[in-house]
Amino acid sequence: MIKQLKENKVVLIIMILTMLFSLLFNKFYKKEYSRVNNSANYYISAKVTKVKSNTLTYDEKLKLNLGQQNIEVEFLEGKHKGERVEINNYVTAVHNVVVKEGTKIIVNADEPENIEPYYTVYQYDRSFGMILFISILCLAVIFIGKGKGGKSIIGLAYSLYLIIYVLLPTVFSGYPPLLMTVLVIALSTVVTLLLLNGHSIKTYSAILSTISGVLLCSLCFYFMSFLLHIDGFSSEEAESLILISAETGLSIKDIMFAGILISSLGAIMDVAMSITSSLFEIRTHKPDITTKELFHSGLEIGKDMIGTMTNTLILAFAGSAFVSLLVLFSFNVDVKQLMNSNYITIEFAQGITGTLGIVLTVPIASMLCAGMLSEKFFLRCSWFRKINN
Fold this sequence. Notes:
Strand 5 and strand 6 form a beta hairpin. Helix 5 packs antiparallel against helix 11 and helix 7 runs parallel beside helix 11. Strands 1, 2, 3, 4, 5 and 6 form a six-stranded antiparallel beta sheet that branches. This protein has helices spanning 2-7, 9-29, 127-172, 177-197, 201-228, 238-248, 255-285, 291-320, 322-330, 335-339, 342-372, 375-380, 382-388; strands spanning 41-54, 57-59, 64-75, 84-91, 104-110, 118-124. It folds into two domains: 41-126, CATH 2.40.50; 174-388, Up-down Bundle (Multidrug efflux transporter AcrB transmembrane fold). It is globular. By secondary structure, it is an alpha+beta fold.
């Protein structure tokens, strides 16, 4: 797999240039701002060495243990590593962290100058579980997907790198969210698909289809946000964003575009690649098929995908909003109030925009792939003939 990666010079060059850009930008151009001074307040891993007292009682209605525990913990890292302190662990319905001897937890350490430090139980230490399940996922992908599975993990890691070290710092520092998101999506798409399929008509057709689908998705959301009167100021975090904007120049108005496009990318890429691969196989087994027939085949394949993919995206948005919807339902909110609230309107726009992106990608991918597999295109583009052989 590493040998194949070395052979793919385009992917390596893009990855190296991206990492160089992110390192230089974060070192010299990223704007620094924090609403909170965390120098005296931090979080540290610890292990419970003894439960000195326990006044927990079981609540039959909530089916939870509630009460208080007096525990002794040992710090596992930092300047206090090896030290032991006593902490009162208040167990409530919201903060239901019940511990026993040996339990690993995260402790919130508040250590202001000239004042006695104060320690509280923040949460369970979930790092081991997260690492374990990430490892299981990676092993499953590699075991089942073999070489392509390993490449898909590299592609996923690169996409996460782009979001964390390129998109977030640049948007935070005041660069246009829409422009930066489209750029990150384009880089992620190119690298992921080139890694998985190499240089071929199939790959380039899928890349163009994905980027076109995402651009159409952004246009749909822009039009929808205009009609529905929503933007970054409509989000629940608007007040925090305004404070950040005053210091860094963060462009709040278009901030929602980033989340919409990123959440839709995976589904759009899946549709584009599936249709392109299917048409490529049809063309391989039936070389005399016409461009028109190939295009209609793509549409027929897309019809089967639209139902499942639209359900996937809409249900994903509905699932993420389920708890909030349940709370709103309990308040017996008026239908007009509910449907015209910022929260529901934003969720609605996200779901509809992502679904439209999937639907519109079907004819785009069919048209591009059918056109690129036509004899006229082959005759005109000697470069594509070479990469396809």
